[in-house]
Amino acid sequence: MQKKYHIIVYGCQMNISDSERVAAVLEGIRYKQTSNITEADLVVITMCSVRQSAVNRVYGILEKIEKFKKKPVTVLTGCILKKDKKKFSNLFNHVIDIKEISNLSKLLGKNIKSKKDYLDIAPRYSSKFSANIPIMTGCNNFCSYCVVPYARGREISRPAKNIISEIKNSVKRGCKEIWLLGQNVNSYKDKKTNFPKLLRQINKIQGSFWIRFTSSHPKDFSDEVISAMAECKKVTPYLNLPVQSGDDQILKLMNRHYTIKEYKNKIAKLRKKIPGVCLSTDIIVGFPGETKKQFENTAKLFRDVKYDMAYINKYSPRHGTAAAKLKDNVSIIEKKKREKILNEILKITALEKNKKYIGKEVEILNDRTKEYKNILVKNLKPGEFIKVKVTGAKPWRLTAN
Ligand code: SF4
């Protein structure tokens, strides 16, 4: 009988993309996907070590599996820290680095020739309309709070020709949205092709589709990227530019390599070249030593920049990082308070921005506008570009008939 697999993803779009490659390896050895974990012969967890909460969830799911009648083979992969790898190797049947995932077939007793580079594995896409395309993996930045450089290693850019070929195939099978993924897409480099050049090459691919990308590091977000975004019609007017703090001293402690003045200059240039661009950011509140005054600088940045969206995280130390050696001296109550203050500011600016759409016609794909605004539409046609008139606005969502 054909064996069944079930994949659980704890993490970001990169982890989802990794899982699509894991699924392809498993289907290559004739495993069949099941959405019912209790009937699976094999359970794969693609995890993210960035937050302790994700690590804790892995323990939670293992406890559940323990109680199943049918005990599946368990595999752990994704962004795993060395110290977690040791810990988890007693609990899982196999713990495997994502870059080694093509060896999974061998571990499961099938002698299939494996691809050298895991990014060359043709994925089993989880969406018909949207494709996650990794363009690079790893990170050289060593932000003081982040485990990614330890979990995924140094930056490796994928050959541009392989990226172009994967996108062409995705567009051929009907994909309308291409997400270019990497820990720092702005530092992409394949021989003479840097990130803006890659955007221009992808923009030339025949077909009707949108190009989105994540994540960007402000220090590498150059004028050349802004020009490419403005000139390439398929690149959507949306940018997530993680600032992490509005205070220069905290940014230094975070090892971010930019000042707030430089960050704001980049935003001003972007808004001048792409009027109406939708802007989101990532923020950490309560970084070790963050004073009330330093936090107030972040609140001021929020008021000044007027973000469309922000992903606000309360700082928690991750073992092995430089910041973990600093005293985590902002209490959880204070962190929650700071998170709430930023959310209140964001609510106001996001609503202000969204109200400007009322009465306007916008192009949408599924539940998102081209600017990546969430939109609620009656009688949605999944996977099709349609134009709708915006009738209402809330801080986190537009509505249309
Ligand atoms: S840029 Fe900084 S936060 Fe982003 S993955 Fe690299 S080290 Fe982590």
End-to-end distance, in Å? 49 Å
Largest sheet: 5 strands, parallel
Strand content: 15-25%
CATH hierarchy class name of the largest domain = Alpha Beta
Ligands bound to this protein structure = iron/sulfur cluster
Would you give the CATH topology of the largest domain? Rossmann fold
Radius of gyration: 22 Å
Class from helix and strand fractions:
alpha/beta
Number of strands: 20
Write down the overall mean pLDDT: 94
User: What is the percent of helical residues?
Assistant: 25-40%
Supply the number of structural domains.
4
Broad shape: globular
CATH superfamily heading of the largest domain: Methylthiotransferase, N-terminal domain
Uncertain runs are none
Spatially, the strands of the biggest sheet line up as 2-1-3-4-5
Overview of the structural elements:
This protein has 401 residues and is of the alpha/beta class. It folds into 4 domains: 4-118, 3-Layer(aba) Sandwich (Rossmann fold); 127-236, Transcription Regulator spoIIAA, CATH 3.30.750; 267-355, Transcription Regulator spoIIAA, CATH 3.30.750.200; 361-400, no CATH class. Helices cover 34% and strands 21% of the residues. It contains 12 helices and 20 strands. The chain has helices at 13-28, 52-66, 82-89, 104-107, 148-152, 160-172, 195-203, 223-231, 248-253, 260-273, 292-305, 332-355, and strands spanning 4-9, 32-33, 42-47, 73-78, 94-95, 130-134, 136-137, 156-157, 177-181, 189-190, 193-194, 210-214, 238-240, 278-285, 309-314, 361-365, 368-369, 375-377, 385-394, 397-400. The strands form 6 sheets. A 5-stranded parallel β-sheet has the order 2-1-3-4-5, with helices on both faces. The protein has a 5-stranded mixed β-sheet with strand order 17-16-19-20-18. Strand 4 (73-78), helix 3 and strand 5 form a beta-alpha-beta unit. Helix 11 (292-305) packs parallel to helix 12 (332-355). The mean pLDDT is 94. Bound molecules: iron/sulfur cluster (SF4).
